[in-house]
Recover the amino acids of this structure.
């Protein structure tokens, strides 16, 4: 068993498919299969159960996966520490972020990373906050921007910002700045992410459930649906700030206390002090401060 075999095993376990893992690793499927078979032969146990749709871990395989993740985490930590002893941090960093942040935050954040940290290869993963939280704990992510996370002794959490939720629809869908009442909210056709719906309901069952037309993970698809008049959505204003400033969309506050999105920068306790992580964290905080402040759209031009 060597480090390469460990990495191959983790890739198959996370993919649930030898074929899928082979594509991610840039290998042919038979070669990866030989590595997995060799591991099982070395230990004399089955690590995976094969089925028509792929593979899943046996109980022994799950135990082995935890050991493998600790090994790869330590190797990555050592690589970061050694490579960061030069003039600039080096290495690869995987950053997780919510889909509702990409359009406004990522251009600034990624641009600064490219300018200030040219020796770091940054990979950005977009997913729901719950999924990002899981991937951070398993080591699939190095750092993540989470939404309203639950505390964990395994994570360092740094507050970034808090934004009230709004109902967003086509421009003029309702008088501006008039709050949406709780009763009115139950009658509106909503197109929203599961995460935003959870923040509004507080995770509790309502006497009058929200009228959800469809749940969609992609904020860009939601934007297109709202612009096409297929429903309204619930997001912080900054999620669709460009369209709001351009008066294509309009945001109205929700008359419910405590309905807000809290952004938190999360790192694992075992990597938070790495130079590369510290530098990425600094840039994340700067980018959030610069971009996540909503402003009033400019007044319309008067015709002469």
């Amino acid at each position: 068993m060597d480090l390469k075999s460990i990495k191959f095993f983790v890739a198959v376990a996370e993919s649930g498919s030898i074929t899928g893992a082979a594509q991610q690793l840039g290998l042919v499927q038979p070669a990866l299969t030989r590595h997995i078979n060799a591991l099982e032969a070395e230990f004399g146990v089955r690590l995976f159960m094969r089925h028509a749709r792929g593979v899943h871990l046996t109980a022994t395989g799950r135990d082995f996966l935890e050991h493998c993740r600790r090994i790869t985490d330590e190797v990555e930590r050592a690589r970061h520490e050694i490579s960061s002893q030069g003039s600039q941090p080096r290495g690869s960093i995987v950053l997780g972020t919510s889909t509702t942040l990409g359009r406004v935050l990522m251009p600034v954040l990624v641009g600064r990373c490219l300018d200030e940290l040219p020796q770091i290869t940054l990979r950005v993963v977009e997913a729901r906050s719950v999924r990002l939280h899981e991937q951070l704990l398993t080591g699939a992510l190095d750092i993540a921007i989470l939404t309203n996370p639950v505390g964990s002794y395994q994570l360092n959490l740094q507050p970034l910002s808090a934004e009230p939720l709004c109902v967003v629809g086509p421009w003029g869908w309702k008088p501006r700045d008039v709050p949406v009442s709780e009763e009115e909210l139950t009658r509106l056709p909503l197109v929203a992410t599961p995460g935003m719906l959870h923040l509004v309901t507080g995770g509790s069952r309502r006497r009058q459930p929200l009228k959800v037309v469809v749940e969609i993970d992609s904020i860009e698809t939601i934007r297109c649906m709202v612009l096409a008049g297929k429903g309204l959505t619930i997001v912080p204003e900054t999620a669709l700030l460009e369209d709001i400033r351009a008066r294509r969309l309009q945001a109205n506050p929700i008359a419910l206390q405590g309905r807000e999105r809290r952004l938190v920068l999360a790192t694992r306790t075992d990597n938070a002090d790495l130079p590369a992580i510290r530098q990425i964290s600094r840039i994340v905080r700067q980018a959030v401060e610069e971009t996540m402040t909503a402003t009033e759209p400019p007044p319309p031009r008067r015709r002469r």
